[in-house]
Amino acid sequence: MASTVIKGGTVVTADLSYEADVLVEGGVITAIGAGLTGDTVLDASGCYIIPGGIDPHTHLEMPFMGTYSADDFESGTRAALAGGTTMVVDFVLPGQGQGLMDAAQMWHNKSGRANCDYSYHMAITWWGEKVWEGMEDSVKAGITSFKHFMAYKGALMVNDDELFASFRRVGDLGGLAMVHAENGDVVAELTAKLLAEGNSGPEAHAYSRPPQVEGEATNRAIMIADMAGVPLYVVHTSCEEAHEAIRRARQAGKRVWGEPLIQHLTLDESEYFNPDWDHAARRVMSPPFRNKAHQASLWAGLQAGSLSCVATDHCAFTTEQKRFGVGDFSKIPNGTGGLEDRLPMLWTHGVNTGRLTPNEFVAVTSTNIAKILNLYPKKGAVLVGADADLVVWDPAKEKVISAGSQQSSIDYNVFEGQAVKGLPRFTLSRGKVVVHDGEMRTEEGHGQFVGRAPRPAVNRALSAWKELTAPRPVQRSGVPATGV
Ligand code: URP
Ligand code: ZN
Ligand code: ZN
Ligand code: ZN
């Protein structure tokens, strides 16, 4: 069997940094130590050997707001690998009335082109017997996390009764509940008001979704999850109000995780006040970019551990698609790109500034989510037996981000002109060198689906809900007393 040895680098994991060679055979790590030899030698001198990034939040070729997100599993995973991300977790989005496994099959049909490994979350976009049944099939098929949209009223939004029912089902199945936390009713009201008052430009998108709508929904989701006895992962946490709710829940012993995006960490709301309509519209996403105080809160959360994973929510639309919303901001397809830039931007603004250690960088880009999603140690680890999804990370390598040289198929980049320092020298996907110094050697279809096992014991044991369900006095009506 052909072997590859990565020599002369420093292994950096979420726990440790140490000098060692890493031997790769058959797609997995077979030895870590000094003086290893192999058929192919990759020079890692001056570099860190880190577990490849895992992006837990992508939307590739997703039908959304009257169109499809522009990056598919081929271009999206190529962009991921170029930037040191070796696995993506994409959202299966069933249509109204569609069965979950039907939708999963549609995703499998698209993901056959992936260049790197991938997994799925299942979105709960409507509620009924068929969904309830399908959730068990989903778990059996290795799709154990379920995302709920509390926003996008009239389209994807689920109401509280549905949320509670679905969360309980997820808990019973040993899965992970996830939420897009924005109060969709309030967003709809604010959107209608802004449009009626003649505010139709992209900046009104931000006004329609203030931090309060996110803070309220995050609190609500946490409380509903607690009553349902299910762990909760809050996607794209963008503001202090939501972060505060997550912090407080964690402090109370609840299994709640928050996921800031690289865009919210590095770009602020002034982007929406750019007089160039295209510039502003290209940055329209939900939740919107916030002010610098919210950014500081997110960075503090990463440092303190109250926020756990940095993602992209990669949902890229071309300028032409964004222009569907000329004259009505609510028709601008929501979403931004970032797959290729997540690691270099986080290294530049996190590690190079001293906010994060290299070990913390590995934790928030790979290891933490691998543990939360039950992918660890197959993914997210530099350990013997782990998949050789590795990045030889060169902290001295620099570039200026530009749409002209990106892998994504859209015509712009929200980080255009930003200088980054810290880039992959080599990216390996299950042992295969797919990127060498910016040169792409990806192989369409090399990526494989990674199923995940449920964790019922972890769910039940770790929710504070257990204590709240201890036997209580029974009211005369025969109904257990509520309140504590
Ligand atoms: O604006 C966003 N975030 N678009 C993608 C879909 C979602 O809400 O995550
Ligand atoms: Zn979302
Ligand atoms: Zn998303
Ligand atoms: Zn292959």
From TrEMBL:
EC number(s) recorded for this UniProt protein: 3.5.2.2
GO-annotated cellular components: cytosol
Role description: Catalyzes the hydrolysis of dihydropyrimidines and of the structurally related DL-5-mono-substituted hydantoins, to produce N-carbamoyl-D-amino acids.
Subunit: Homotetramer.
Domain Amidohydrolase-related, residue spans: 48-434
Record keyword Hydrolase present: yes
Sequence similarity: Belongs to the metallo-dependent hydrolases superfamily. Hydantoinase/dihydropyrimidinase family.
Pfam family, one: Amidohydro_1
PANTHER family for the chain: COLLAPSIN RESPONSE MEDIATOR PROTEIN, HYDRANTOINASE/DIHYDROPYRIMIDINASE FAMILY MEMBER
GO molecular function: dihydropyrimidinase activity; metal ion binding
UniProt key word Zinc: yes
Keyword set, alphabetical order: Hydrolase, Metal-binding, Zinc
Modified residues (N6-carboxylysine): K147
Catalytic activity reported: 5,6-dihydrouracil + H2O = 3-(carbamoylamino)propanoate + H(+)
Descriptive protein name: D-hydantoinase/dihydropyrimidinase
Post-translational note: Carbamylation allows a single lysine to coordinate two divalent metal cations.
GO biological process: nucleobase-containing small molecule metabolic process; pyrimidine-containing compound metabolic process
Cofactor: Zn(2+)
